[in-house]
Design goal:
16 helices, alpha/beta, globular, 530 residues, 20 strands, five-stranded parallel β-sheet
């Protein structure tokens, strides 16, 4: 029988995991990587970037960090070394085509009308359509030589991430960046620079944004210019950034990432008992959040600087809005090398930025927009067919409609957060978020590999779309206006349980009752699910 061809777009951590698990199942995937090296977002990042999770939480399930790495939060260079070691250990580099930019992908073998009439995914509920009429056509450009080549694959896995590629640039109805006489760049462009210290030295720098990259850039600029030339940070939304991963010595994972904590939240497709239990325990979840918020407000000068978020810490955990604060950040605010401004909107003038109230103009030579990325647009842009562009990322008012498992007795083996019900022979790995994206991505990659090997079939498209609707309710409830981030952090164990059931493994991965319910779960618990 002819061996099926599997194509993977992207050689970041998700793409490497997808490649490794596909190889484990006997496939010889082709990985297309636009850059000249593996690592994805870790390849081009700020010099000060460190791991945001502990090494125990950010790792591949089947390879621990080397003993030589003793830091809890290693530098980005050590993260890259770890990723390269993984690729070498499992001999993955031979499957990767570097400097290969995928310009577009198109499904061949069935029309939009035929696909929309199917009752089962791909027509038969399996990874590959019967016969030879279902394939993906990839147009790939060699960025070094400049020539373009076409590849055909039987199954396509997109591992293009959501935190790179297409920057999110604010829109201005009037007084936009065209008025500004200085330099404007996105944080992505800043991260690609070789000598940022020279670029910002002695300049009035304004950073727009309130996420992790904005804090990191502000800290870097402050180290270069100090109080003699303070940088200004315009925060549009205040977020919870923590200075350490514990409160009073107890790791936060014991409050949110163990099995007992999963009982405190409602879950997609939960049964009546789980619903009653989550409802009854919701006051406990509220109390835990308040205790943590009190601790953070006492140990970090959030109130002093007007940086207390308007949402709860539990909401931040469930919406993947938690990040680590740069070391000594508020010390630099106190000394005057960083100036914090709060403003929902702003506009430009010839020599700087005007805040929303219009009463203050911030003189600027350089404006850095640390405003994130448009992951949904990046996902749409890779498809050439309009019908795929239209449905793959949903609408602004819905989540990305990737099929997720609902734990119902009558529905067994349903996909999770990586299959679109209406796009055949394709999986998207690494788009949904968790507190450590590698952890979630590798579980999905493992699940997809089992699906490719025929370990299970998908249910009807109708059941899949009902599942999508259930997960959308969950994300609207716990992720609020950030629902399109598709965060699964606080139900990660529930999610992994169903993945394990699909592929035929026991979801209870710990030894002993107390460990199973109270110890935090992590990647190492899922080692060996081949």
């Amino acid at each position: 029988m002819e061996r099926k061809r599997v194509g993977i777009v992207g050689a970041g951590v998700s793409g490497l995991a997808a490649c490794k698990h596909a190889v484990d199942k006997g496939f010889s995937p082709v990985v297309f990587e636009a850059d000249g090296s593996i690592g994805g977002v870790w390849t081009h990042t700020l010099e000060s970037t460190r791991l945001q999770a502990t090494t125990a939480a950010y790792r591949f399930s089947d390879m621990a960090w080397p003993a030589s790495v003793t830091e809890t939060y290693p530098s980005h260079r050590k993260v890259m070394d770890y990723i390269k070691s993984y690729a070498c250990k499992f001999d993955l580099l031979k499957y990767i085509k570097f400097n290969s930019q995928v310009l577009g992908v198109e499904y061949l073998g069935a029309t939009e009308e035929e696909i929309m009439s199917w009752e089962h995914w791909s027509g038969n509920g399996t990874a590959f359509r019967s016969g030879k009429d279902g394939r993906w056509c990839l147009t790939v450009k060699d960025s070094k030589v400049g020539n373009t080549e076409v590849f055909l694959v039987d199954f396509l896995i997109l591992c293009i991430g959501r935190h790179s590629g297409t920057p999110n640039i604010p829109e201005f109805l009037a007084n936009g960046p065209e008025l500004f006489k200085g330099k404007i760049l996105h944080s992505m462009d800043y991260a690609y620079m070789d000598n940022v210290a020279e670029f910002v030295k002695g300049k009035h720098v304004t950073i727009v944004g309130s996420g992790k990259s904005a804090f990191d850039i502000a800290a870097e600029v402050a180290r270069v210019n100090g109080v003699s030339q303070p940088c200004t940070m315009i925060c549009r939304t205040k977020h919870w950034l923590v200075h350490k991963p514990s409160i009073w010595g107890v790791p936060l994972s014991y409050f949110y990432l163990n099995r007992i904590s999963q009982l405190l939240v409602h879950k997609p497709g939960e049964g009546f008992l789980h619903y009653i239990l989550a409802t009854m325990l919701s006051p406990l979840r509220w109390a835990i959040s308040k205790v943590i918020e009190t601790y953070l407000k006492r140990s970090i000068p959030l109130q002093k600087h007007g940086m207390v978020p308007e949402y709860s810490f539990s909401f931040a955990m469930s919406a993947c809005l938690i990040a680590m604060l740069p070391e000594g950040f508020y010390d630099r605010v106190d000394e005057g090398s960083i100036i914090l401004k709060k403003s929902k909107k702003f506009s430009f003038c010839d020599d700087g930025i005007i805040l929303q109230d219009g009463n203050e103009c911030i003189k600027s030579d350089i404006v850095i927009l640390a405003t994130g990325f448009r992951g949904d647009q990046k996902l749409r842009d890779i498809f050439t067919a309009n019908w795929c562009k239209r449905i793959v990322a949903g609408s602004p008012n819905t989540t990305v409609p990737l099929y997720s498992v609902i734990l119902l007795i009558k529905v067994i083996g349903i996909n999770r957060e990586c299959i679109h019900p209406r796009i055949p022979q394709l999986a998207i790995v690494g788009y949904s978020e968790s507190l450590t994206d590698l952890y979630a991505s590798e579980r999905m990659a493992n699940w997809v590999a089992h699906f490719l090997a025929g370990s299970f079939q998908l249910p009807s498209i109708r059941c899949m779309e009902e599942s999508v609707a259930e997960w959308e309710k969950y994300k609207n409830l716990y992720n609020g206006k950030y629902f399109r981030r598709s965060c699964i952090s606080t139900i990660n164990i529930w999610f992994n349980d169903m993945l394990c059931q699909d592929i035929g493994y026991n979801p209870r991965r710990k030894n002993g009752f107390l460990a199973e319910w109270f110890q935090p779960y992590g990647p190492a618990d899922y080692a060996g699910l081949h």
